[in-house]
Amino acid sequence: MMKHHLDKRFKMANREAIIGICLVLFNFIWWFTFAYGLGSKEPDQYTFILGFPAWFFYSCIVGVILMIVLVSIVVRFFFKDFSLDDKEYDQL
Known about the structure:
- The chain has 4 helices and 2 strands; from the N terminus they run H-H-E-E-H-H.
- It is mainly α.
- It has a two-stranded antiparallel ribbon with strand order 1-2.
- Helix 2 packs antiparallel against helix 3 (about 55-80).
- The longest helix has about 30 residues, at about 10-40.
- The protein is elongated.
- The two termini are about 20 Å apart.
- The model has no long low-confidence stretch (mean pLDDT about 90).
- It holds the Pfam family DUF997.
């Protein structure tokens, strides 16, 4: 158990897990803010974008596109491909 705390692979895996959790929290806050912030009005007061209520457009459509871009950027620039297998790590 102590060995995992000293191993660079597990430090990297923990860092990537924290980044993933931050992305999930950001996605939830984005969705919640627009869904309940703009969607709390009476339906006759809604504004529409491309035929969708604004709260749905921003929370679901824009949110998904934003998360796809953010996850792509994070995986491309902050994540590294490495093996957690001891055999492959010892050969490096």
